[in-house]
Amino acid sequence: MFERVTNTTTLQLLQKGLDVSSKRQSVISNNIANVNTPGYKRQFVTFEEEMAKVIDGVSDLRGLRSDVRHFPINDISHKACEPVTVTDKGRIMRNDKNNVDIDMEMGDLAKNTMSYQIFANRISGMFAQLNDVIVRGGKA
User: Fold this and answer.
1) Other residues' Cβ atoms within 10 Å of the Cβ of residue 83
2) For the whole model, what pTM was predicted?
3) Residue 49 has pLDDT above 60, yes or no
């Protein structure tokens, strides 16, 4: 019964958001730590674009199922979306070939911190409501 209540799409998406924020925090921290490392290329995490495709029902792949036992090619769920770490090789800002911009990284860090707090607060609120139902038993 508890799994039926907690295993909702909303909770799964919020958990995925926390996972992505955690990975992004690690990547941003690594970029900041290597701001003065010659030749270091900044990294960033992509996720939102792929998740938007899943939510909108848009998939780059199309497939024809000739048998029901075949795996559907374009049936992608939010569970299949994972964050991807990408190395930014396009921009070079300094003579030592390092492309980390500390101001941009600090801005990304602040944005990511706020996202993490939003996801955590929403999950906390969901469990607080569930706890209220359990404790009070639906009584006003």
Assistant:
1) 19
2) 0.76
3) yes
Which position has the higher pLDDT, 58 or 121? 121
Q: What is the DSSP letter of 137?
A: T
The pLDDT of residue 59 is above 60? no
Task: Report the Cα 108 to chain-centroid distance in Å.
Answer: 14
**3-class SS at 66?**
coil
Q: Which two tokens stand for residue 92?
A: 């070079």
Which residues is 87 bridged to in the sheet? 43
CB-CB contact of 31 with 42 (8 Å): yes
Q: What letter does residue 40 receive in the DSSP assignment?
A: -
Give the single-character DSSP code of 71.
Answer: P
For 44-59, the DSSP string reads EEE-HHHHHHHHHT--
Whether 88 and 42 have beta carbons less than 8 Å apart is answered as yes
Cβ contact 50:77 at 8 Å: no
Whole-angstrom distance, CA of residue 110 vs CA of residue 105: 9
**How far apart, in whole angstroms, are the C-alpha atoms of residue 127 and residue 112?**
23
Minimal CA–CA distance to 51: which of 83, 88, 73, 74?
83
